[in-house]
Amino acid sequence: MDIHDKVTNIMHQLFTNPTLLDTLKSYSKESNLVLSIDLTDNTESVEVNVFKKKNKHDFIQSNLPRYKKVKKEDTKDSCSICLEEYTTSTYKRTLLCNHHFHKKCIDKWLLRCQETFIHCPICRCSYELPLDKVTTLTLV
């Protein structure tokens, strides 16, 4: 069986497999799914891993540096998104690339980014959203 036939066979099995279809239906409304198929093994069975992308909001809150209340000495700086100066009554978030923004401005910006990456609006330093494994199916 050549690679084209193998891929055609796998695709047919994937979209006629009730277990996979149920999994896809249960997650498709709340998140994007990623299928990973390893074709390097020469055996007759193929493993299909199903992943879902983590929620962007949760990722921002748990993986990016925490925000801090603006200190008096920081009030001479300004946010590069809204261009307003920082005040002591606001919060700022500094990304790993050391660019800083109002917390509300950068969080809104990051939530608007593409599905698989979020990035700094200044230098485009990106953070890839991690994947959570949902299930593994073995096709024969």
Topology:
Elements: H1 3-16, H2 18-28, E1 33-37, E2 46-53, H3 56-63, E3 67-69, E4 91-94, E5 100-102, H4 103-112, E6 117-119, E7 126-128, E8 131-139
Antiparallel strand pairs: 1-2, 2-8, 3-4, 4-5, 6-7
Using the coordinates shown, work out and report the CATH topology of the largest domain.
Herpes Virus-1
The CATH superfamily of the largest domain appears as Zinc/RING finger domain, C3HC4 (zinc finger)
Structural Rg = 22 Å
* Sheet of most strands: 3 strands, antiparallel
Output mean pLDDT.
78
Shape: elongated
- Helix percent reads 25-40%
> What string, H for helix and E for strand, traces the elements in order?
HHEEHEEEHEEE
Distance between the termini: 13 Å
> Based on the structure given, which CATH architecture of the largest domain is correct?
2-Layer Sandwich
Q: How many DSSP H or I helices?
A: 4
Strand sequence of the main sheet, in spatial order? 1-2-8
Per DSSP E runs of 2 or more residues, the count of β-strands stands at 8
Structure classification: alpha+beta
**Count of all domains:** 2
Indicate the proportion of strand residues: 25-35%
Low-confidence stretches: none
CATH class of the largest domain: Alpha Beta
